[in-house]
Amino acid sequence: MAEPHAPSYYAATANAFRAQPPLVGSVAADVCVVGGGYTGLSAALSAAEAGYAVTLIEAHRIGWGASGRNGGQMIPGFRWSATDLVERFGQEAAQRLFTVANTARNRVHDRIARHNIACDLRHGHFTAACKPADFAAMERELECLDYLMGYDGAQLVRPEQTGGIVSAKGYHGGIYDSAGGHLHPLNYALGLAEAARAAGVRLHEGSPVVRVTGGDRPSVATAQGSVSARYVVLACDAFMGEIDADLGRYTMPVANYNIATQPLGEERARALIPSGAAISESRFVLNYYRLSADNRLIFGGGEKYTPRPPRDVAGFVRPYMEAAFPGVKGIGIDYAWGGLVGVTMNRLPHFGRKGNIFYAHGYSGHGVLLTTLAGELITEAMRGTAERFDLFASLPVKPFPGGPLLRHPLYVAGMLWYALRDRL
Ligand SMILES: Cc1cc2nc3c(=O)[nH]c(=O)nc-3n(C[C@H](O)[C@H](O)[C@H](O)COP(=O)(O)OP(=O)(O)OC[C@H]3O[C@@H](n4cnc5c(N)ncnc54)[C@H](O)[C@@H]3O)c2cc1C
User: Fold this and answer.
1) Which residues lie with the beta carbon below 6 Å from any ligand 1 atom?
2) What would the pLDDT profile of 258-280 be if each residue is shown by its tens digit?
3) What tens digit of pLDDT does each residue of 149-172 get?
4) Do the beta carbons of residue 225 and residue 16 sit within 8 Å?
5) Dihedral class, residue 218 (left if φ above 0, else alpha if ψ from -120 to 50, else beta)
6) Residue 396 CB neighbour total at 10 angstroms
7) Residue-range domains of the chain with CATH
């Protein structure tokens, strides 16, 4: 039996989901998915719907990775702004990327509606400008969204209007995106898993994959079993390096921490975030937060450059929350937890295939929406329509230089530089 979820607000409020048996013995499948987060679950579910016999193997529990621990922020698009996409790729390619990425939001909403997933879905996402220069960039971004992308979901919030969205001090306006939102991340993962199970996917928990073998008919092996399949999908995000050293060079696992306060009551909670939207900041090393369905403030923030977690996670995140909201100083913190974000060098996700092995990882903090799309694009590609998958696979993501030993110091140096820039 797989171990329980790491303690968090999400684990404490998870919907019931029956534990799945470990993989034992040798089995054959059309598709074998490794990893039971959103990417793997979405690939497995869509492949089963397409008629494939699918086995999904998860090392721990379904949703044990970032998908069960994240901030729940549904942020449309990539980590790059539309303006960045146009500058780097030109208008036409940027429009194509933007258009496909933008389908992610509706795919998640569609899954939630179709499978009746109770995951506290709420609407609206606000990116707060931390400096006047960031707001000026947002004005340009709005023009780009409007004129070049034909996107009308976003609106500029002027500095003096910010209080209507969020009461935290120190912001200089921002962008409100009505297509964004937030949800209970673990319950979304469990809902996808339940839908996958109902569609015929064989789910195995507590089954770490120890070996992946390529070829015409690739296979994966665990300590107690193996699966040979027509296609294998590697969906291990920040843990990818553990099963494929080459793919591991493309992401840096970065620890990030969250807290959930005690319930604040509706009035006090609404005074913090009157819009009820998910909030994240324009800073590189950012705070992000939202209200839970039971009116707690769920807050992620802080900078941590060593792989070791802080001894007191709540004590580590609390100062960032209290700086944003002095009114909650001293409030009880009921839950504190952390997880690993798979970050690529340039913050764009890394998609691709090696023969019949597909992979998608490195969403760089923007995976709540993009992962459902990723899984569905992998199934599309397996079925022979790879145009959209190939578009994402063409994103210019490079490996971190220097292998695992140099990767971390280089990353730390980079993060410190950006953290310094945030303060200028
Ligand atoms: C603290 C935190 C906050 C975040 N906040 C946000 C946010 O607010 N908005 C947003 O868009 N994104 C956010 N993210 C990022 C987002 O959660 C991820 O991009 C997304 O969940 C990745 O999903 P995934 O399925 O690709 O990977 P995961 O959910 O990490 O799933 C990978 C799975 O693979 C399994 N696995 C690993 N190795 C093996 C193996 N050898 N054999 C079998 N299984 C294996 C793991 O146990 C895990 O369950 C956050 C991430 C973290 C950690």
Assistant:
1) 34-40, 57-60, 64-67, 69-73, 75, 208-209, 235-239, 242-243, 256, 258, 288, 300, 339-341, 361, 363, 365-368, 371
2) 999 999 999 999 999 999 999 99
3) 999 999 999 999 999 999 998 999
4) no
5) beta
6) 9
7) 9-69+187-251+346-405 (3.50.50.60)
